[in-house]
Amino acid sequence: MAPKSNQSKTPWQDALGDACRNLQISAPVFQVVSDRRGGRTAWSSRVVVYGSTVSARFWYDGKNLNNAKEDAAEVALGWLNGSSSNPSSPSTSRGGW
Q1: Where are the alpha helices (DSSP H) in 24-64?
Q2: If residue 12 lies in a helix (H) or strand (E), which one and from where to where?
Q3: What is the SS3 assignment for 40?
Q4: Alpha-carbon torsion angle 17, 19, 21, 24, nearest 10
Q5: Is 29 exposed, middle or buried (0-12, 13-18, 19+ CB in 10 A)?
Q6: Alpha-carbon distance 66 to 58, whole Å?
Q7: CATH match for 11-80 among 3.40.190.10, 1.10.760.10, 3.30.160.20, 3.40.50.620
């Protein structure tokens, strides 16, 4: 399921919230995480949905925290729809920097 095509800045987060409502499960809970890398800090996100923690695929610069949450929401939505079998596999990619 693709996100809504409206002008929202959080289309994947919105789509995940809608999916949770439709499935009558608890709303997703996002967590922002950081990792100190030399002189910089990388940021990512994870979301707890239906009792599972789903991590974003990539790490982001601090100014792109919404992208991290969108990434986690996209992965979680895929998992809820059966597109991904392992929601908690760790990601070590530095994409988005």
Answers
A1: none
A2: helix 11-23
A3: strand
A4: -130
A5: exposed
A6: 12
A7: 3.30.160.20
Rg (CA), the chain: 13
The secondary structure of residue 15, as a DSSP letter, is H
How many other CB atoms sit within 10 Å of the CB of residue 73?
27
pLDDT tens digits, residue range 2-54? 666 556 799 999 999 999 999 999 999 999 999 998 899 999 999 999 999 99
d(CA 88, CA 1): 20
22/33 Cα distance (integer angstroms): 28
For residue 94, pLDDT over 50 is answered with no
One-letter identity of residue 22 = N
d(CA 23, CA 82): 13
Among all chains, which residue has been given the structure tokens 């499960």? 25
